């Protein structure tokens, strides 16, 4: 399969590179090998999907990239800079990373705009400036008009939109997403896939997303990183050939179904 020529090369500033990055939990010999030494280049300004069976190391890889876990050996580069040095995180590299989890994790006592603006408040940004930014992001993610509401007043899909907006509030070059739509119903999940595609086309962020859904991976990705069962390793990197924007009807085309069937066969094998 060939990739999208329009995005070839990407942006080196927002690229990610795993350099023989390995992760073991517990003592050598008795612990769990979550990820074998992995070397992988993730191109800037593309949407890369991590796909594989449960327990294969997808989330572990994402947490290594996010700086939430140190690699047991090897390193991760963000925009060419080492994320870890002497077991300490590179703060400048971390500033390029935004994270969205499966649960929106919004503070229930804060309004939506205050939740979105919170990272800017922690960075000392003036109130008027950060609230203006929050409203801009509400418009970007499609929840403008709900910025004064509390999280409990919004649906799960709208709360997740707010979580995406919060991750984008300080304008990171890279957005990391761990099963962000996994808890949503099928119709809402399809809508969120379309919304994420639109947000990516408007912002050109580097996005790395973990999913168990083959269809979601093929619909969203520029490239799919297929991981083997634990201990996790990169089995294959697959380019997705479809131009953007991708319409939901693409799911029913023979070309789309052929890629889905090929990936399912590789996963089952």
Short description:
With 269 residues, the chain is an alpha/beta fold. It has 8 helices and 12 strands. The chain has a single domain (5-96, 172-268), classed as P-loop containing nucleotide triphosphate hydrolases (Rossmann fold, 3-Layer(aba) Sandwich), CATH 3.40.50.
Major sheet size, sense and barrel closure: 6 strands, mixed
Radius of gyration: 18 Å
- Anisotropy-based shape: globular
Helix residue percentage: 25-40%
Total number of distinct structural domains: 1
**CATH A-level architecture:** 3-Layer(aba) Sandwich
Low-confidence stretches: 1-9
Structural class: alpha/beta
Q: How many beta-strand elements?
A: 12
Number of helices: 8
Distance between the termini: 20 Å
Mean pLDDT: 91
Strands in their spatial order, largest beta sheet: 8-9-10-3-11-12
Features:
269 residues; alpha/beta; Rossmann fold; six-stranded mixed β-sheet; four-stranded antiparallel β-sheet; 8 helices; 12 strands; globular; disordered N terminus
Can you describe what's shown?
The chain has 269 residues and is an alpha/beta fold. The protein has one domain (5-96, 172-268): 3-Layer(aba) Sandwich (Rossmann fold). The protein is built from eight helices and twelve strands. The protein is globular.
